[in-house]
Structure formats: structure tokens, C-alpha cells
Design goal:
The structure holds two protein chains of two kinds. Chain A is α/β, with parallel strands linked by helices. Chain A is about 35% helix and about 20% strand. Chain A has two domains: about 160 residues, Rossmann fold; about 130 residues, Heat Shock Protein 90, CATH 3.30.565. In chain B, the strands form three sheets. In chain B, strands 2-6-5-3-4 form a five-stranded parallel beta sheet, with helices on both faces. A five-stranded mixed beta sheet of chain B has the order 8-9-10-11-12. Classes of the chains: A alpha/beta, B alpha/beta.
Chain lengths: ~325, ~280
């Protein structure tokens, strides 16, 4: 039995709220949390330390609330989807009628990078449909860049105002029509790559990357890039079209890799964010695996083909 | 100590080595056979050629005085039918029993062991013979890792890609013939060597369908210390093997980069592959 604005709704009730002050933040979040506590629903709150502390101080009794202090939940979009899924499975197994979760994705306004989180906000409308989740995403209009606020408006089917009014969002774009933000090129990508391999095996790409990365970036990051380039090359060979090109750029403390083929890339808008969403056995798992690593991943579908960009080390841009 | 991994020549092999080689023309096989057998004779092994006496003389006649050696049974000629039976596909368990009996006989006759070689191409011409023959190769690999039987299995290049599926089940193979190997460790573990990724995924899946625990195996240990890389597909293949295996499967010495892939996937997806010493 679901309560509040999501009463009678099945699946993920995904709602955005916009605030310009702590008072508006309070007006949006306190009723959401207090109603959940009163209904005996699990409530999960995941903001930065300052906002988590504010929420604690505003609640009558914050003890039933799960505060996500672990920032690694938001280390990467696909990892956040997986981490929340595990939480939802746990609460659903305990018989929760509704799970309330509220948080804030990384963006320049809160000291993070928004790359990839546009796809996340679009994807969670679909990937948690099998759970009775009410997700409330609150955005600070004073600090979030305009592009972030625009994405927030296009990815949430519902909007709640600080006044408490809930409404359907006519700017909402479903996952199949969502227009993701363009990938910002890394400055290194505008320079000549250190190596370019055409139509070579994944093993040859690993060998070249290992030689370039050794001593340049930390061992675990190089390992993740080796795993990433293997999966990207394998995908290009198995599912891509035309020539497969691997380009590797290196600066003193970081590495950028492009794995490019001449195909259109995955048709599935959830590619990489969930383990596999097509009915082809194993399809999508490699791309999902890449997104679970401690490296920056971007998928770029352009007129000249599909590129997986991997970045490790001190990430620029 | 067995020779494991890619090799450049067929010299210096010991009592328990199992190597694969390929040739285009029979004349390419000849010098290798001579070296392999001469090495064996020097080590006090009985050497056995599978085929006909005429072929043996053709291969070795110019290099070795075959007659006297054959007379005192230091060199034997064994027909294919004697070891592999007349029916096709071969019966792997029966074949290994024959090899074991011949090895035991060599020891009984005062030799240090048995060394065999054959061009087995004609035994694997038909695809329906591949499964059974590959099982034979794996059983031979495991047997030779624990008994004084050394073997050089020759395949002709006109088999095409099919050669790789047999080559990968030998401890020693020519450089570049297969990106990966499944071999027998001295302690009964199954060793994996090389790169396991999309380039050999089909071959690895096929190899894993063809290996089985021995009747006296209480578990099957896979040693990954010689693995350079294993991608998620190969890990899932290993997981699927573990799921259908009649005995528990243990993986040991998994390289850190492979452990990372396995960890991200979540071992629960790997169908019960247990990590030893993790």
C-alpha cells in the first residue's frame, strides 16, 4: 500500500523538485520524509554532509531514516543504479509497500561532474519499474548549471513545488526520446594520439595500453582501463560495423582512449547502465561492466560511427 | 618439470611432456620426429610410432638405423587401430587405457618410460570425431602429467582452424598456434594459460565442454597463474562449467586483473566458482 502523492501508482514514481534556498529545500524534503516515517516506509536520504545534517536537524526523529554517507554510491551512474537496486531488493524482500528515496546526483553546483548523470536520470524511470519506489530528486537552482536544470526538467515525469503541489511535467521526455547532453571532448582528443591501432585484436590493444600506461597512472586504474579497452574492442568486433580503431592519448598522469567503429552503436538507450536489457544472451554485459569500473566512460553516437571513450587518471573536463 | 606454454622447437622435452605440432607437408614432420625420438632414446625411453613400419622407415630411415632398434623393441610401431580402435569416433577412456598399458609395459621392460608420436590428422577429418578426439587429447594431457608418457601429436595444416581446438589441449604448442591453453598441472589441477577473450571465446567454450573430471577427482582445481587476461565471457564460461560439473570447482591463483572482472560481475553470477585464498 503506497502513501502520499504516489498512492495507487505502480513502479518508480520519479519526481523532481527545485529550490533556491534552505527554506525551500526544507519545505520540499521534510514532508516527504516525515510522511514516510509516519507510514512505516523505509526512507533513504543521500545528500552531501551539510544537507544531510540539515535534514537530520529538521526531523522530529531522524532515527528511522537511512542517511547515505557513502559518497561512492554516486561514483558512477551505473554503479548508483546497481547500488540502489540492491537497497530496493532488500526493502522489498522485507515487505515494504513503498520505498522513499531522495538525493542529488553530482553536478558542478555541488562539486561534482554531471557527465553521464543525464542518462542516469532518464534511465531510472525504467530500470526501477519493478519496485514501489518514490524517488524525489531535489535540485538547487542557485548552484546547478542551466544545462543540469534543463536535464532535470526533461527526465522527471512529475514535479513537486516547495508549496507541496504535485503536478505532471509536460517537458518530460521518455527514455526512448530523451536527448542526452553532447559529450564534451577531452582536450587530449584534439591532439595527435600516442598510438592508433586499426582492426587489431583486444590483446594487441591491451599490450599497447599496458606499455603506455605503465608508470604513468596508478596500477588499479590501468587495470580498469585494460578491462575497459578489452570489452570495448570486443563489443566493436562483435556488434559494430566496419573498421575498428583504437586511439590512445597520454598525458603525464592520465590516459584517454577511444574505441571507434563505423556502426551506430547500441540501439538500447539503457546500454551500459544495466547488465543486459535485450534478449540477446550476454549482450550489454560488457558495456555494463565498463561502467562499473573506476574510470570515466562516455558513449558517443555520431554520424561517423560509435565511440566508447575511456579516461583514467587525473580526469580533465 | 613439464614444458608448459608456447615453444620454438621440439628439442629437450622430458619424460612427461605433451606437445602439439603442425605441418604442411610430411617432410616437415620428419626432422621433428627424428629429434623427438632421438632425444627419447637418449633418455632411455621406449619410442613408439603410430602408423606403419613403412612410414617409420620413410620418416627416420635417413637419420636413424631403425632395424636394430626395432629388433630390440626400443622403437615400436603401433597401428592406429591398436590404440584408437577401428571404430570412429574413438572411445577416449579406452584409448587412455591403451596408452597406460603401453607405458607400463615400457617400464616393465626396463625403459624410463614411453615416448609416442603420430600424425593424427586422419583421425579428426570428420567434425563428428572432434569431440571424442579432443577428450582423448585432454585425458592424454592429464595422464602424461603424472606418468612417464611423452607425446608429440602432429596435425596437418589443411585441417584449418580445427587444429586450434586440439592444440589448446596440449601443455606445449608452437608459438602463435593458439592464444590459450588448457593443460594439466603436476598436482592434478587444470592449468589455464594465455589470453582468454573474444578472439578465442568459441574455442574456449568448446574446450570447456570437452573436459571432465576424472572418476577419482573429488574436486576440480583450475590454476590461473599462467593466465594473462580473462574477460567476462570466459569467466562466465568457467562459471557455467562449474555449474554443470559433477564435482566442486575451485579456482586458484587468479591474477588481480581477472579477480577485478570477477568481482565486478559478482561471483554469484559465476555459477559456484570458488576462489581459493581470496
Amino acid at each position: 500500500m503506497r502513501t502520499g502523492a504516489a498512492r495507487g501508482y505502480a513502479g518508480h514514481f520519479h519526481e523532481a523538485g527545485f529550490y533556491g534556498s534552505d527554506a525551500e529545500f526544507r519545505a520540499l524534503i521534510v514532508p516527504f520524509v516525515e510522511e514516510g516515517i509516519a507510514a512505516g516506509e523505509p526512507v533513504i536520504v543521500g545528500y552531501d554532509d551539510r544537507k544531510n545534517a540539515l535534514v537530520r536537524s529538521w526531523l522530529t526523529d531522524p532515527s528511522p531514516v537511512t542517511f547515505l554517507a557513502d559518497k561512492s554510491v554516486y561514483a558512477a551512474p551505473a554503479r548508483a543504479i546497481a547500488a540502489y537496486r540492491r537497497l530496493f531488493e532488500f526493502h522489498a524482500a522485507l515487505g515494504a509497500g513503498q520505498i522513499r528515496v531522495t538525493g542529488e546526483v553530482p553536478h558542478p553546483g555541488n562539486g561534482g561532474r554531471f557527465d553521464g548523470w543525464d542518462r542516469y536520470e532518464a534511465a531510472v524511470n525504467t530500470v526501477w519499474e519493478d519496485f514501489p519506489v518514490w524517488g524525489l530528486c531535489l535540485y538547487d537552482t542557485a548552484t546547478a548549471p542551466a544545462a543540469v536544470l534543463d536535464v532535470a526538467e526533461r527526465t522527471h515525469p512529475r514535479i513537486v513545488a516547495p508549496s507541496g503541489a504535485h503536478r505532471a511535467n509536460d517537458r518530460f521526455q521518455g527514455i526512448s526520446v530523451f536527448e542526452a547532453l553532447p559529450i564534451v571532448p577531452d582536450p587530449l582528443e584534439k591532439t595527435r594520439p600516442m598510438i592508433e591501432l586499426a582492426d587489431r585484436s583486444a590483446a594487441e590493444a591491451r599490450l599497447a595500453l599496458a606499455q603506455i600506461g605503465e608508470g604513468r597512472i596508478a596500477g588499479p586504474i590501468l587495470e580498469d582501463l585494460l578491462i575497459g579497452v578489452t570489452e570495448a574492442v570486443s563489443n566493436a568486433l562483435l556488434h559494430g560495423h566496419g573498421s575498428v580503431t583504437v586511439r590512445i592519448w597520454a598525458a603525464a598522469d592520465r590516459i584517454v582512449i577511444n574505441v571507434h567503429d563505423q556502426g551506430r552503436g547500441p540501439a538500447d538507450p539503457l546500454a551500459g547502465l544495466v547488465p543486459a536489457s535485450s534478449n540477446i544472451p550476454d549482450a550489454g554485459l560488457g558495456l555494463w561492466l565498463i561502467h562499473q569500473l573506476d574510470i570515466d566512460v562516455a558513449l558517443n553516437q555520431a554520424d561517423d560511427g560509435f565511440t566508447v571513450r575511456l579516461r583514467g587518471g587525473t580526469t580533465s573536463g | 618439470m613439464r614444458v608448459i606454454g608456447p615453444v620454438e622447437s621440439c628439442r629437450g622435452f622430458g619424460l612427461q611432456d605433451h606437445l602439439c605440432w603442425v605441418h604442411g607437408e610430411p617432410c616437415e614432420y620428419r626432422p621433428r620426429l627424428t629429434e623427438f625420438f632421438s632425444d627419447g632414446l637418449e633418455r632411455g625411453l621406449r619410442v613408439a610410432y603410430l602408423g606403419s613400419a613403412g612410414e617409420l622407415r620413410e620418416h627416420l630411415g635417413r637419420f636413424v638405423d631403425v632395424g636394430p632398434l626395432q629388433a630390440r623393441e626400443a622403437i615400436q610401431v603401433i597401428s592406429f587401430d591398436e590404440i584408437y580402435g577401428a571404430g570412429r569416433p574413438v572411445d577416449p577412456a579406452k584409448v587412455i587405457k591403451k596408452y597406460a598399458a603401453a607405458t607400463q609395459q615400457a617400464l616393465t621392460d626396463g625403459y624410463q618410460g614411453l615416448r609416442v608420436s603420430a600424425d593424427v590428422t586422419d583421425l579428426v577429418r570428420a567434425p563428428e570425431q572432434h569431440d571424442a578426439f579432443a577428450r582423448c587429447e585432454f585425458l592424454l594431457e592429464r595422464y602424461s602429467s603424472r606418468h612417464p608418457l611423452s607425446a608429440m601429436c602432429e596435425y596437418r595444416l589443411d585441417l584449418g582452424d580445427a587444429v586450434t581446438q586440439f592444440a589448446c589441449l596440449h601443455a606445449a604448442v608452437p608459438e602463435g598456434l593458439t592464444p590459450f591453453q588448457v593443460f594439466a598441472c603436476d598436482d592434478g589441477a587444470v592449468g589455464l594459460l594465455g589470453d582468454f577473450d573474444v578472439a578465442c571465446q568459441t574455442a574456449f567454450e568448446r574446450a570447456m565442454r570437452r573436459i571432465h573430471p576424472a572418476p577419482d577427482d573429488s574436486c576440480l582445481v583450475f590454476d590461473m597463474s599462467a593466465v594473462r587476461y580473462m574477460d567476462h565471457r570466459a569467466l562466465l564460461t568457467l562459471g557455467a562449467f562449474a555449474q554443470r560439473c559433477q564435482v566442486p570447482v575451485v579456482v586458484r591463483s587468479m591474477p588481480p586483473i581477472v579477480r577485478r572482472v570477477a568481482g565486478v560481475l559478482g561471483l554469484e553470477h559465476l555459477g559456484g566458482v570458488h576462489l581459493e585464498g581470496s
